[in-house]
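Posting for a labmate who doesn't have an account.
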Amino acid sequence: MRLEPLRRRHVRRCAEIEKVLFAGDSPWPAAAFHSELDAGGYYLVALSDTGEVVGYAGLARAGRPGDWETSVHTIGVLPEYQGQGVGTELLRALLERADELAAPVFLEVRTDNDSAIRLYEKHGFERIGLRKRYYQPSGADAYTMMRPARQTQEVAR
């Protein structure tokens, strides 16, 4: 598996994966991925040894230099590749980018997604809030989680 920047040629496959993973909660259409790329988001794809897109992840940035804030907008991995470290590698790459900006990282995660919650907690995220009925149309709740900004010196350790 290798990671590379998400390109427009990958968007259709990412949207297809969204339909598999988030069928009950308004999966992102291709237009949403294009919009994120247009906005300058930091998006990656995970490619199998054969070059197939098996996962993707995106980080948005807000603010200005010296006062950045970031948000994990999405992480998705095909079910047959879950549990093999793909999501972990995608998350680590997003966190490295946030660390380069010395920015805190925010995200929302379904309250019933135990494996994702464990992954985020393992990487320094803490629950800071609850968003009732955040995911639509299912009405599932989400935790808001945050990882504080890491300064360059902390990252080097």
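Reply:
Got it, the structure tokens are right above this. DSSP finds five helices and seven strands in the chain.
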